[in-house]
């Protein structure tokens, strides 16, 4: 690459001059390439250890003038080819011009200007995105691509200097982190280490310190453990590695490939050595943390954050913290954890103004909202810029107030005057019938057609209010009053100050009238609902009357959702539940519907209207419980792993016992997936849900630990899993909520766990209090860290399970062993994933469907299959191998979707590796018949035939037998005989063939129904052009074999025999069509030919018999009858040195005489040729003696055919061929060799990365 001219003082230090002229020097770095001795070793080591490894290219060009001691670097190159190109350009374009100048300063100025001009011209053509990466980083990326053989699309994220521990010896080098790979390179005193690991192969990634290793990063794959240490900033490196491994796991989980965000704002200050990709990943990490902290929608992107203080009116203090600004929100988080959190949606903001600064309150900022609340921020470092950013975002915020935000929270306050819809007692007939037909037609929620469109089911099915008048009702009123006071002091709605006081109130239980409102606020669902008015109603309308797998599952589970609650004992509640679940399934087809969603949604509908319940479900499935409700419940398995880890930490004695009994995996899924709603009485479980919406998964984990802690002694005495489950079941059944104002709903689970002793009741609020006292030191950041670690483990475990399932499914039908199948699966999957990395235009990546069985999830296209076939096939055919791979792909792709799954892949491989000679030949035979063989591929055979036959002289061949002559006469019908073929005869012939075709298709259909094993009798016959392609494949296949000459001789013998068999067979197959009785008599006198000719019904194949073709030749044949013809044998010399000028010769009759000859034939023998001498059109051709078509070279002989039995019988006569096809090939060795090739990046003349051997 051309460089902006840089001054170089010592041109000879560490460099060797290879070319020179009066104005330029071409130099090579010492230690690069061959030789170099000790100096080269030292320089090479320094280049790797120091940062120069990335910065210094191995070649450079310097500009010099005779009298000056200063040199200017004008170009550098990573390969000799690249630098030579620059050197030649300078010599051709600049040398003559520079010789004209008299002043050396003018020469240098001219050269500098010319080089700057070239660079400017090159930069015009480059993509603007590459401009964002600093020059030093580009050089490192170029070095990485050359060193590890990565394509252009593989992007480098960052690189770090570190040591890789090989045994107990550290190897100092460079760690390159790309989007899909972890790479390491070290070169120390001649010892080279190269590592390439895919992120999808990483099973464990952790940062630790041991006695043996200093603080290091451990990377574990299924095959090895790698340790890297001596980082300058180990935390930054580990964080980036975690992020990249997470992206890879996401790709395995839901097929999401990495797409760089090109809309990132440019940094205000230029960054020295940070790539655009690294900035993108850093921004993603910050966005995820920001959204999780404040429960914001998934598309919210953080714009920036700054330190500040917030005036809190409830305690009259300035609280230090950070302000976060994004497109739609201003948020604040105090430095002291949970002291205060604040979320201000920009849609609520009315005024943003700068207040007067003072020594007490520097740089204050006032923000007012529509709810008459004002927030004062101070100590802002760049207040003017911040106000400008907020103003810009406010201008983009829609000025029209969304419809949903007009709705006030009045109905939640419990005022009698606010309830517009009358309460429906469960015994009322109206409760059963009013919406019985609602699910059969579109519903207008705005018009209030459905009661559940505006209120929760609990209000519609409120029971007798006796409890409201007693002590429980008084307690409930006190709770409501406490919350009203809290709203007065801390604000209400999204802009409420959230403090430890808020959490304390949540722990005491949210009043039923406020539950829906506060769930929406704490979960962040309110934001999404307000910003998407009418979205739910549209979804309901679109999904109405649509049916798919998800809707079937929903219908099946509707009546299992809280059947004990009166709200779901009638069509009103069932219809509402159906609409919400179906709407979500249409919103998110990836999840669709998963069991346990119905239980959670039914509880949401009790306290919220349908739209609110829908958005709460969205918040649960997509943000608060990520990946919980997909087909493999990965999120729940991840949190189950965290629970096991926490149990080991907090309850070590119990942990061992629980592992021994296998209880944790059983209990945690039901606890986490339904938020305890399915295992605890409803009145108690709903309090758990209160705390969950405020605290997140942290609360579920600490309550789970508290439950185990309360039962430690009993669990330690358990003998089996059933006993442990009974103890925990009975405990949970007796967790009661004595403050609930609703009558207790019978819990079905309690019936299964009743015992003799009266149960000991546990108050839910005591359980919550205990969980906070003992396990409240759980931190959200720690849980997220553990989630990453467990996600690696869970997804890799699921991938292993998938591999075993697929291998088990295909092993019964395939000849490979289990070990071989597992290795093949790994290779197959890696090839599929490669298309996700680098093949954006390929269909395979886009068509992966997680809902399909494991066997169908990974599928590859033809290009990927060809790459695998070339490396794994035992039938290497040189340049012909890709052609053979394409044919096998078409043969395997039975459904014609241009993709094949693993079973189809190993079926094709097994046909080449396993079975006897017959089975392998059968595969090879099929590869030269449709659909494997394309019609286009036979064009070369037509050309070859033309080449062999166009100059043949017309003489009588001494090898023409009576049979040949008779059949030849048969084709010489006179014009009068043709005229006597009237229409009725033709109709009769057609009528005669129709039933045959009909019976043929009936037989084919019957065979498909029988699904019996295919036999050699079932294989159709092969035409001449297909046979030519088969011969071409065989000739290519035997090249580079140890017994190559024997194989060529054997196939030449077999081919010649088969050609004659085909000739004779053609004449017998033509007999029914001809009318000459004399010829029939003569043909019956040749018993040998009759034995060799096909006699089965299948011999009358449409590809063999073509009546129109035979008719059209009659006149031509009759015209040339007076002159007998000879088809001379054409053959290649067998190594005797004859005909050195050309591989093809016309030999005399004596030289081609063969005692077995029964008709004239053409033959190409390549016994003495090397593989590269056999061109595509050098093929075997058999031509009918006396055929005008062959004589004039117009077309392939379409009457010629051969059967598989004849090919097999001919092959068995040659020992060399039998040995070749029956020899065993170890596919594991081929897979191993392929991996070595992938990991080996040897030096080449293209970019010369050779190392100096020690």
From TrEMBL:
Compositional bias (Basic and acidic residues): 974-992, 1108-1127
Coiled-coil regions listed: none
Gene3D superfamilies, alphabetized: EF-hand, Pleckstrin-homology domain (PH domain)/Phosphotyrosine-binding domain (PTB), putative rabgap domain of human tbc1 domain family member 14 like domains, Ypt/Rab-GAP domain of gyp1p, domain 1, Ypt/Rab-GAP domain of gyp1p, domain 3
Ranges of residues in domain Rab-GAP TBC: 509-696
Domain EF-hand: 887-915
Region span, Disordered: 974-994, 1074-1158
Cellular location(s): Membrane
Name this polypeptide is given: TBC1 domain family member 9B
Gene Ontology molecular function, alphabetical: calcium ion binding; GTPase activator activity
Membrane topology: Single-pass membrane protein
SMART domains: GRAM (SM00568), TBC (SM00164)
Predominant cellular place of this UniProt entry's protein: membrane
Function: May act as a GTPase-activating protein for Rab family protein(s).
Any one of the GO BP annotations: system process
Entry GO CC: membrane
Superkingdom of the organism of origin: Eukaryota
Keywords in alphabetical order: GTPase activation, Membrane, Phosphoprotein, Repeat, Transmembrane, Transmembrane helix
Source organism of the structure: Gallus gallus
Listed InterPro entries: EF-hand-dom_pair (IPR011992), EF_hand_dom (IPR002048), GRAM (IPR004182), PH-like_dom_sf (IPR011993), Rab-GAP-TBC_dom (IPR000195), Rab-GAP_TBC_sf (IPR035969), TCB1D9/TCB1D9B_PH-GRAM1 (IPR036014), TCB1D9/TCB1D9B_PH-GRAM2 (IPR036017)
């Amino acid at each position: 690459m051309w460089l902006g001219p840089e001054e170089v003082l010592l041109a000879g230090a560490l460099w060797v001059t290879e070319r020179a002229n009066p104005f330029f020097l071409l130099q090579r770095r010492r230690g690069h390439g061959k030789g170099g001795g000790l100096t080269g070793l030292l320089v090479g080591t320094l280049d790797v250890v120091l940062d120069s490894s990335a910065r210094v290219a191995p070649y450079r060009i310097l500009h010099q003038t005779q009298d000056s001691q200063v040199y200017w670097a004008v170009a550098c190159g990573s390969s000799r080819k690249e630098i030579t190109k620059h050197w030649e350009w300078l010599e051709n374009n600049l040398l003559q011009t520079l010789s004209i100048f008299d002043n050396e300063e003018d020469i240098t100025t001219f050269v500098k200007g010319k080089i700057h001009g070239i660079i400017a011209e090159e930069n015009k053509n480059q993509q603007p995105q590459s401009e964002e990466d600093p020059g030093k980083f580009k050089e490192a990326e170029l070095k990485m691509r050359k060193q590890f053989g990565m394509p252009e699309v593989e992007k480098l994220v960052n690189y770090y200097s570190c040591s890789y521990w090989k045994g107990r010896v550290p190897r100092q080098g460079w760690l390159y982190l790309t989007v899909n790979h972890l790479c390491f390179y070290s070169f120390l005193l001649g010892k080279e280490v190269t590592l390439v690991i895919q992120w999808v192969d990483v099973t464990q990634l952790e940062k630790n310190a041991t006695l043996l290793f200093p603080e290091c990063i451990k990377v574990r794959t299924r095959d090895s453990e790698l340790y890297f240490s001596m980082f300058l900033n180990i935390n930054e490196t580990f964080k980036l590695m975690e992020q990249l491994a997470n992206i890879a796991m996401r790709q395995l989980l839901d097929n999401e490939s990495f797409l760089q965000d090109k809309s990132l704002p440019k940094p205000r200050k230029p960054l020295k050595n940070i790539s655009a990709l690294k900035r993108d990943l850093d921004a993603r990490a910050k966005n995820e943390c920001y959204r999780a902290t404040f429960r914001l929608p998934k598309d919210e992107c953080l714009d920036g954050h700054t330190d500040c203080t917030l005036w809190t009116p409830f305690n009259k203090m300035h609280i230090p913290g950070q302000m976060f600004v994004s497109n739609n929100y201003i948020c604040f988080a105090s430095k002291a954890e949970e002291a205060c959190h604040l979320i201000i949606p920009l849609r609520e903001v009315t005024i943003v103004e700068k207040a007067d600064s003072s020594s007490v309150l520097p740089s204050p900022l006032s923000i007012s909202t529509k709810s008459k609340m004002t927030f004062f921020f101070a100590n802002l470092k760049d207040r003017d810029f911040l106000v400008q950013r907020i103003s810009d975002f406010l201008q983009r915020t829609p000025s029209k107030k969304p419809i949903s935000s007009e709705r006030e929270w009045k109905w939640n306050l419990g005022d009698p005057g606010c309830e517009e819809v009358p309460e429906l007692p469960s015994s009322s007939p109206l409760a059963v019938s009013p919406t019985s037909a609602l699910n059969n037609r579109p519903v207008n929620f705005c018009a209030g057609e459905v009661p559940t469109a505006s209120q929760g089911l609990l209000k519609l099915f409120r029971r007798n209010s006796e409890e409201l008048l007693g002590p429980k009702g008084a307690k409930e009123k006190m709770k409501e009053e406490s919350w009203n006071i809290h709203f007065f002091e801390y604000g209400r709605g999204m802009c409420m100050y959230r403090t430890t006081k808020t959490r304390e109130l949540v722990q005491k239980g949210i009043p039923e009238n406020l539950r829906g409102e506060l769930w929406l606020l704490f979960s962040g669902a309110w934001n999404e609902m307000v910003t998407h008015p009418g979205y739910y109603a549209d979804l309901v309308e679109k999904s109405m009357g649509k049916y798919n797998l998800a809707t079937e599952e929903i219908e099946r589970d509707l009546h299992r959702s809280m059947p004990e609650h009166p709200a779901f004992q009638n069509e009103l509640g069932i219809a509402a539940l159906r609409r919400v679940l179906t709407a979500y399934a249409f919103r998110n087809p990836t999840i669709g519907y998963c069991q346990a969603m119905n239980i959670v949604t039914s509880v949401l509908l009790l306290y919220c209207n349908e739209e609110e319940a829908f958005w709460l479900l969205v918040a649960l499935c997509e943000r608060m419980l990520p990946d919980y409700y997909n087909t493999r419940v990965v999120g729940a398995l991840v949190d189950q792993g965290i629970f096991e880890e926490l149990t080991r930490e907090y309850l070590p004695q119990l942990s061992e016992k629980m592992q021994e009994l296998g209880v944790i995996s059983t209990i945690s899924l039901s606890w986490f997936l339904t938020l305890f709603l399915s295992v605890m009485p409803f009145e108690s479980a709903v309090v758990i849900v209160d705390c969950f919406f405020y605290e997140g998964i942290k609360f579920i984990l600490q309550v789970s630990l508290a439950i185990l802690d309360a039962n430690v002694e009993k669990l330690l005495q358990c003998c089996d899993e059933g006993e442990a489950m009974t103890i925990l079941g009975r405990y949970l059944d007796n967790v009661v909520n004595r403050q609930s104002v609703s009558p207790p709903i019978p819990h079905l689970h309690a019936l299964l766990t009743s015992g003799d002793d009266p149960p000991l009741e546990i108050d839910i609020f005591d359980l919550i209090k205990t969980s906070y006292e003992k396990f409240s030191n759980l931190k959200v950041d720690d849980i997220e860290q553990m989630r990453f670690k467990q996600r690696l483990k869970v997804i890799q475990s699921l991938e292993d399970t998938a591999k075993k399932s697929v291998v088990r499914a295909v092993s019964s039908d395939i000849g490979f062993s289990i070990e071989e199948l597992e290795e093949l699966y790994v290779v197959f999957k890696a090839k599929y994933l490669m298309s996700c990395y680098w093949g954006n235009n390929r269909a395979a990546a886009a068509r992966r469907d997680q809902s399909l069985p494991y066997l169908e999830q990974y599928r590859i296209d033809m290009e990927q299959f060809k790459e695998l076939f070339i490396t794994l096939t035992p039938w290497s055919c040189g340049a012909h191998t890709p052609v053979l791979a394409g044919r096998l792909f078409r043969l395997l792709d039975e459904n014609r979707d241009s993709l094949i799954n693993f079973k189809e892949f190993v079926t094709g491989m097994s046909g080449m590796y396993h079975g006897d000679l017959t089975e392998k030949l059968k595969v090879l035979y099929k590869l030269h018949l449709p659909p494997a063989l394309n019609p286009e591929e036979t064009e070369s055979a037509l050309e070859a035939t033309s080449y062999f036959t166009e100059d043949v002289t017309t003489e009588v061949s001494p090898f023409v037998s009576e049979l040949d002559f008779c059949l030849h006469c048969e084709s010489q019908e006179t014009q009068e005989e043709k005229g006597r073929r009237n229409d009725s005869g033709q109709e009769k012939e057609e009528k005669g063939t129709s039933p045959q075709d009909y019976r043929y298709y009936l037989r084919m259909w019957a065979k498909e129904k029988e699904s019996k094993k295919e036999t050699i009798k079932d294989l159709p016959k092969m035409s001449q052009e297909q046979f030519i392609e088969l011969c071409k494949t065989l000739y290519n296949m035997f090249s580079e074999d140890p017994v190559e000459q024997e194989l060529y001789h054997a196939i030449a013998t077999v081919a010649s025999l088969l050609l004659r068999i085909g000739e004779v067979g053609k004449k017998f197959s033509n007999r029914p069509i001809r009318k000459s009785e004399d010829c029939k008599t003569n043909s019956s006198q040749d018993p040998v030919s009759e034995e060799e000719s096909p006699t089965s019904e299948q011999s009358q194949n449409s590809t063999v018999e073509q009546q129109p073709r035979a008719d059209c030749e009659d006149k031509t044949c009759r015209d040339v009858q007076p002159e007998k013809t000879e088809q001379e044998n054409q053959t290649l010399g067998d190594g005797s040195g004859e005909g050195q000028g050309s591989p093809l010769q016309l030999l005399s009759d004596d030289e081609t005489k063969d005692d077995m000859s029964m008709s004239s034939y053409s033959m190409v023998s390549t016994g003495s040729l090397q593989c590269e001498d056999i061109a595509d059109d050098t093929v075997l051709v058999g031509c009918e003696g006396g055929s005008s078509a062959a004589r004039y070279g117009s077309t392939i002989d379409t009457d010629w055919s051969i059967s598989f039995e004849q090919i097999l019988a001919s092959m068995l006569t040659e020992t060399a061929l039998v040995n070749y096809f029956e020899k065993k090939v170890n596919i594991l060795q081929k897979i191993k060799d392929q991996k070595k090739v992938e990991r080996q990046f040897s030096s080449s003349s293209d970019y010369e990365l050779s190392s100096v051997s020690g």
